[in-house]
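Ticket reopened. Same input as before:
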Amino acid sequence: MAFTPEPLIPGDLYDGAARLAKQAAQELARLPDPADRAAALGRLWNQVQDLQWPMLMLPEAAGGADGTLDDLVALIDGAARDALPLPLAGVCGVTPMLLAAADPAATGLLAGEALAPCPVLDAYAGWLGHANTPRAVRMPDGTLRLDGTATGVETPFETAGYLLACPMNGGVDDGNATEPALVLVRRDQLSQPPRLFERVDGRLAADLSFAGLVLPAEALLARGPTVRRAVAAALDLGAFLSCVEAQAALGTALELVIAYLSDRKQFGVALSSFQALRHMVAELYVVYETLRATVVHLLHAASPAGTLPPREVALAKLHFGRATRRAAEKIIQLHGGMGMTEELPATRLNKRLVMVEFEYGDTAWHARQLLRDVA
Amino acid sequence: MDTLAVTNTPSPDTSDDAAFRETLRQFCRTECPGWICDAVRSGGKLGRKQWEPWQRILHKRGWGAPDWPAEFGGTGWTVRQRQIFGEVLAECDCPPPHHQGLRHIGPVLMRFGTPEQQARFLPGMIDGTNFWCQGYSEPGAGSDLASLRTRAERQGDEYVINGQKTWTTGAHEADWIYALVRTSTEAKKQGGITLVVLPMDSPGLTVRPIRTIDGWHHVNEVFFSDVRVPVANRVGEEGQAWEYGKYLLQHERLGLAASLGQLARTMDRTRTIIERELPGEAGLERRRALLERLLMEEAELVSMQEMAQHCVAAMVDGRSLGSLPSVLKLASTEIVQRVSEIALDAAGQRLAARYTPLDGGGANAEDEGVEAVHSFLYLRSRTIVAGTTEVQKNLIARSLFGS
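Engineering reply: fixed in the latest deploy. New output:
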């Protein structure tokens, strides 16, 4: 085959993640029942934890591997090649970025318990648009009271907890002032069990309700401007990792399209001999290379600490949101009727591509942010 | 297949880069005549009138050939320095280096020309005294260039050329033409093609302008009637020019890499046009809509710039580029066209109906912004020249499918 997508950053992390993703794809393809698939995702998540990937980006002092952004990208890129439906970007990337705002001792504690919480950023995810986002009040006795809901939180089948960033009242001398807070909510502390869903791309998501949930004082990991900065950096990182995943998924989808058109015959000749289809594949390849170049550009633009330039991240999301959906549509069209079936391996990747638009801000939201100075 | 990897691209500005950028900036701001900057800023079509004096100024400073190695009189700059040079030229509204000599036939002569040819032709490109044009396309040989029929018959130490070239950009201003001619019909059609260079004032050579939809004069037909060219003007081996032509076309496509800085500047100008044409509360809704479309193009431009850096770095290192030049050409020309559509949408309502005043004069230079209308029409050619978009797709598909 003339085209095989190359890793962005080759190495063991990429290879290991790609292997697990391939294994997962084969296993999940045999399970038509969503409940069985969810259980399988639980087992796969256990493997992820055994491999200690959630520790990759935590500081060495907290028991982590002190990984770099390149390490994280290698991991996410490898896993996304086969659209591994696990919340690696959130737990291995976004969560550590949020924890940078917390006391290293608290982070060490989480690492010691192998507690890899899922990030919950609804309160600062302006694109969600729902009014009842999570909020906290610090009670006079130091406990925290949480209210509100979070929707579509990416999660493994059973997570040990959630890392919630939300506004908090009562955390400063002036009890009416609001400041950002970082709160750890252990799963067993929830008064209502999360409601689980399977997303379009086969990942699991949870709706959480915090109505009146009271947590002990130690649940508050950090507060104030450091949390605000960490949340901004975490949102940018999440958006960037979503782009990394999309280019990887598109690379594999392109490889599969080329194989399909080369093998399948119509009118006695290979589909790959029809110029209309060849041109459509060329267009896909152009999209793939431009998306890849955007990711490479952002990697170069990142600071040594892994923070990314916000405007360029927003531009990238604009580019990806539009391009990935068009690419998914083309991939379906190129497969003809087969493109509409669940059994086609490219379908899983296609669904992943469709989902990218809704992660960390859609096209309209990012455009609005970039144009907010236009009076 | 070559694809973009993380490790192959230059890093952002170092302190040396920043100092270099500032030196260039100072030079451009003080040395480039205002009337030339005005012409660039207007978005109009540049010609020899602007290019020649600017090239002489660059040459005087030792920067006449920013992309060439020092041994041929170039600056010997690194990839990063060349990129910065392109960015600063754009930022300061200076013309980019004229492409036909410096970017097209120049590199071919460096690679395939004799030392005598290099000594004879390269200096005139650097100092701005010689302007070149390209004799490739013919009435029956555009995308199918190998079907070209302009004949060159060997007679002693000369070739006698008969035939016609078309779409010859700048032929009316050029001193020299490099042309692909057929010296044999016996081999397959890609064989038997030879590259020659000849002066535009050769007896038997005539130029006729082609009126194009944009209202600017830039392309021509060139007719050869028993035009005599010394064999010493042949570049490389007889019948081997298909390979040289492909080499040149790759440079031509990569020339786009150098023009991306200009595209970024064009986006700035388009933003200005939008804000000027659609002011205040009345224009708010349309202004926002057009600015959002422009953002989409800016988002894609980022990837083009990254890819361009990668291509130039790979070329300098002698690494394979695969089909990336085609990707770059295809994607960037479509961005250029869409940006010009946005400018047209902003200014067109006022100006498309007042395109050419009938009370004298040509293009309506009195109306600020009218160049956006000309430019929109002119830029339709971008997906046609240097290999149409469809040809690029064929090349990419061949590389992806292996046949």
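Chain A touches chain B at residues 1-6, 8-9, 70, 73, 258, 261-262, 272, 275, 278-279, 281-283, 285-286, 289-294, 296-297, 299-301, 312, 315-316, 318-319, 322, 367, 370-371, 374-375 (CB under 8 Å). The CA atoms of residues 212 and 221 of chain A lie 19 Å apart. Please confirm and we'll close it.
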